[in-house]
Specification:
9-stranded mixed β-sheet; 32% helix; alpha+beta; 7-stranded mixed β-sheet
Length: 991
């Protein structure tokens, strides 16, 4: 019996929709007899249809055989194919699984008999690349791409009309309430069933309030991670293909976005706020109306509820459907994530993401009270307690101390404050854990007040008491609800249900009591005292600043810095790049932690500029003390510059006894080259390829890193000559063959001399920092130094990155090579963030500089710089930070090597001490660099609380050079987060 061509599905008229029972052998027969294709069939999963991948004789994919559920009529199938053809024609940048056609243009489609009855079978275009299915974490770029595709499909189908669209599908969110009501009984666990039903009721009620304003149109309605195909070989996975038009229907247009959003929620590490890039991307292509933006998250919840109920029902009626059974856990995960935040909070975040933050308007501040909330307590007597990253009181790690808030408040009270109050909506650093994979709840939705004397809380205006119990009072305040919380020993002076007038006693609060004051919109969900920064915009929209109730001004700085990055780009040369596309705003550091204004602590894995750790008290005290006394240039006579240069000279072997002080590594290298050229009288320089030495003319001239300058090798001045990077891992000579690098470099040096242009200098890092901490081959520098000296040149050692104890076993990198350079250039670590650099050489070389004129650096060797330099050396010694580099660095390297045994993407672990590099490759034989994967990993690590960045010519090496004070707990946290991120991003053993 043939299906009725014009019949369309009505889900509520069907008992169940089990997928057609078709074996691979039967599928092959259908393809051959009805669709003119001889192929081998491989079953694919589906909720309600039967799908097969057909392979040609050579095993290459030929097509997809789709056998529709027998409940679907021919008209519906025709609508699906027409919609696919339309999108393929209108959006050529998208790959679409269109129906294959015969030579005469007719679709390769036929009605066939199945165990479940007659069904429409057809051949569809196979799209290589694979879906986005599975637990793999979705990067922001992938999430945004999914939103973009949904927007493009929506705009293309806006005017599509077809009789096959008039169907009643269980996936159509217009019927979500009925679907859940019908299927919820299949959810066996009472708590889960009740949760699904309650969420459906709330979400449906909100959608119905908006439904009349939600436009209807043709929709794909299944643009999920299962049906979006990634462009082959893209990293991170980027979708460009669309399959499975089986749910095409006419429904709310905004549902086209709600469906893919819900499908993202089961992926590893994905939380609701991670979906906002998709919202922004969709909105950029197909703008949402205010009503659609408001309805979006309720529809996500409804989709999640339908998935849970439908999945349980499908697994029950179609017991052999492994696809449906396997989806149950992820469908529940989707529901949990969809409902983990109240709908009004997520709806506000959606409006904010689309630029509709003020539509509808939100409550922003309290109305002026008729009476002050705390009687006879003048605002002038209240001290504001700043707990943000900008608070001086949180210096020196105070933010990490338990009970810091109470102690700081008590100190202010002892200093004469009548009361102490915190700030509304400003992230509290005191609630920030040092190491955490997720952000902490740091943003306050109200204020806390500590009383220095007894006070009476009075009604600020006429209102009704909503609750009055020991420790808490709630009363109306205009359209808001005022909540006062205090210890349970405090009993209210009012009763629940009573009406109060302005000035009427509410509670008598004893001296020394801490109370919490909050204002929230009437009827809003319960608002936590502290919320996570990613969610703060949503929660704060439900609240108001209660400060005016105490006579205090509203904090106007809460959102004032949103445009700070735009302001930076407007005036700061963009070639001075910043880390990350959307960087956190870092305003404080402490030891090996960086702290954002959101109250997030990040483990700092990149800052070799601060070997002692951020904000070291000894450096701060020493520089501050000297600034109070004198800071001038080194032409004046003072002790600190003498003491500092003496200390530096003692750290180096003979004959390196003479010091020049400058401000940076670039200046140090530039000066080092000038010294070598001046002393030798030879103007040519030999440098290693793939190296970076600085940005001044001379230091840039010998910098050959392609990442820092893609045209580096082609734009070198004629006096610079390069030799191969002696990289034992990915260079031309690998492993034991790396011994060939030195003879080849010597040949270049000898050829220069034979041509009448002997090199005046050979410059290199002594431990290959730019390549990620790769040690030079044993004996390399000894052989090359000897060659350049044989022709009258000098050896210049760039110790800017690796010197000062970072390598652990050696204070200087050249010690690892058992050589003594003629000139040593150092910076970065010298000043612990203060601009300080040095060149150390012999007296004979230094004196030859006078042949070129005189040398002077305005602030190089200034009193402050000298004092800072001395303090850094003292602290490195006193805190045994070089020893710490050995201990913690060795431990961390072992942890990284263990990860390399588990993850095929890790090609090598380089380095020594706390200068390490983790090199990521796609293939262990070809060493194809995993550049894009490394960038994605760095972004994911930031989300997990770690700042780490790539290095190397291919940007495929994680540079691991944290402050030398890092401890084992932090090293373990880094390794643990790296382990987690690699797992979430799908990097298992692949070689």
């Amino acid at each position: 019996m043939l299906p009725d061509k014009h019949r369309t599905i009505d889900f509520f008229a069907e008992d169940a929709l089990p997928a057609p029972r078709v074996t691979p052998a039967e599928a092959e027969l259908i393809a051959a007899e009805h669709l003119d294709m001889t192929a081998r069939g491989q079953a694919l999963g589906s909720q309600q249809d039967a799908n097969f991948l057909l392979h040609a004789d050579d095993r290459t994919p030929a097509a997809i055989l789709k056998i529709a559920n027998s409940a679907f009529g021919t008209t519906e199938i025709e609508a699906q194919d027409a919609a696919a053809d339309l999108i393929a024609s209108a959006r050529p940048e998208l790959r679409i699984a269109t129906v294959l056609r015969r030579a005469d243009g007719s679709p390769r489609r036929a009605t066939v008999d199945t165990e479940n009855g007659p069904a429409v079978a057809r051949l569809l275009r196979y799209l290589p690349g694979g879906t986005l299915s599975g637990p793999r974490h979705l990067s922001p770029a992938t999430v945004a791409a999914m939103g973009t595709i949904a927007g493009k499909v929506s705009t293309t189908l806006r005017d599509f009309r077809h009789p096959g669209l008039e169907r009643v599908l269980q996936w159509d969110l217009q019927y979500a309430d009925r679907v859940v009501a019908r299927l919820a009984g299949h959810i066996e666990e009472p708590d889960r069933r009740n949760a699904v039903e309650a969420a459906t009721t709330e979400a449906w009620a909100r959608v119905q309030e908006l439904a009349a304003a939600l436009p209807l149109q043709a929709v794909h309605l299944d643009l999920t991670d299962d049906n979006l195909i990634r462009c082959p070989d893209t990293f991170p996975p980027m979708p460009d293909g669309v399959i499975d038009f089986g749910d095409v229907t006419k429904s709310w247009a905004v549902a086209e976005l709600a469906v893919p959003l819900s499908s993202m929620l089961h992926h590893d590490g994905i939380e609701p706020h991670h979906l906002l890039p998709a919202v922004r991307a969709f909105h950029a292509v197909r703008p949402l109306s205010p009503e659609e933006a408001e309805a979006l998250w309720p529809l996500v919840i409804l989709r999640a509820a339908v998935l849970v109920a439908s999945g349980r029902q499908q697994a029950a009626v179609d017991e052999d459907n492994t696809y449906a059974e396997a989806a149950l856990d992820r469908e529940w995960r989707i529901f949990e994530q969809a409902t983990c935040l109240p709908m009004p909070v997520m709806s506000r975040l959606v409006r904010d993401a689309t630029g509709m933050a003020d539509s509808p308007a939100r409550t922003t501040q309290a109305a002026a009270p008729v009476r002050s909330l705390l009687r006879d307590l003048a605002a002038a007597g209240i001290t504001l307690l700043d707990l943000s990253t900008d608070a001086d009181s949180l210096d020196r790690g105070t933010w990490l101390e338990a009970g810091a808030e109470d102690r700081l408040a008590a100190s202010a009270l002892r200093d004469g404050a009548v009361a102490v109050a915190t700030r509304y909506a400003r992230a509290r650093l005191t609630r920030t854990p040092a190491l955490s994979a997720v952000s902490a709840a740091t943003v306050p939705t109200g204020i806390d007040v500590w009383l220095g004397r007894e006070a009476v809380a009075q009604a600020p205006d006429a209102g009704k008491v909503l609750a009055a119990v020991p420790g808490r009072v709630e009363l109306t305040y205009g359209e808001q609800v005022l909540t006062l919380s205090f210890p349970r020993t405090v009993h209210p002076a009012v009763t629940t249900g009573a009406t109060v007038q302005a000035g009427e006693d509410v509670a008598r609060v004893p001296s020394g009591t801490a109370l919490h004051i909050s204002l929230s919109a009437a009827g809003s969900p319960a608002v936590p005292r502290l919320v996570r920064p990613e969610h703060a915009t949503g929660w704060l929209a439900l609240t108001a600043d209660p400060s005016p109730l105490l006579g205090l001004p509203v904090d106007s700085d809460v959102t004032a810095e949103r445009d700070l990055l735009d302001r930076r780009d407007a005036v700061f040369a963009t070639v001075q790049e910043h880390y990350y596309a959307s960087p956190p705003r870092i305003e404080r550091g402490w030891r090996h932690h960086l702290l954002s204004t959101d109250g997030r602590s990040y483990l700092d894995i990149v800052n070799n500029v601060t070997p002692l750790g951020h904000a070291h008290p000894r450096v701060e005290q020493a520089s501050s003390r000297q600034l109070r006394r004198l800071n001038t240039n080194s032409r004046f006579h003072y002790a600190s510059v003498v003491e500092f240069t003496e200390r530096l000279a003692t750290l180096l072997p003979d004959p390196l006894d003479t010091v020049f002080l400058v401000n940076s590594g670039s200046e140090a290298v530039d000066l080092g080259l000038r010294l070598a050229i001046g002393a030798s009288g030879q103007h040519d320089v030999v440098a290693l390829r793939e190296a970076y030495h600085g940005w001044t003319y001379a230091s840039d001239a010998v910098s050959t890193s392609l990442q820092d300058n893609p045209n580096a090798l082609a734009t070198r001045p004629s006096w610079v000559h390069t030799v191969d990077s002696p990289n034992y891992y990915r260079g031309r000579h690998r492993g034991t063959d790396a011994t060939r690098y030195a003879p080849e470099a010597i040949a270049v040096i000898d050829e220069l001399a034979d041509s009448g242009r002997p090199a005046g200098a050979f410059i290199s890092e002594t431990f290959y920092g730019n390549a990620g901490g790769v040690a030079l081959p044993d004996g390399y520098l000894a052989e090359v130094y000897a060659a350049v000296r044989r022709h009258g040149g000098l050896a210049v050692a760039d110790e800017v990155q690796v010197g000062y104890g970072r390598l652990g076993h050696w204070f200087w990198g050249f010690e690892q090579q058992q050589v003594v350079p003629d000139i040593v250039c150092v910076a970065k670590a010298m000043g612990n963030g203060h601009p300080l650099g040095a060149v150390i050489t012999s007296r004979a070389v230094a004196d030859r500089y006078r042949d070129q004129g005189y040398f002077f650096a305005s602030t190089g060797g200034s009193p402050v710089s000298s004092i800072v330099g001395l303090t850094v050396l003292d602290t490195l010694r006193d805190e045994d930070l070089q020893g710490n580099a050995v201990r913690v660095g060795s431990h961390l390297k072992r942890r990284l090597e263990a990860l390399a045994d588990r993850y095929g993407i890790i090609g090598a672990v380089h380095g020594s001490g706390l200068y390490l590099g983790l090199e990521l490759v796609r293939d262990h034989s070809t060493l194809e660099p995993a550049t894009e994967e490394t960038a994605e990993l760095c972004d994911r690590m930031l989300d997990l609380g770690v700042v780490v960045q790539p290095t190397g010519d291919h940007l495929n090496i994680l540079k691991i050079k944290p402050p030398l004070c890092i401890d084992t707990a932090a090293a373990d946290f880094f390794a643990d987060m790296l382990d987690l991120a690699l797992t979430q991003l799908g990097h298992g053993r692949t070689w």
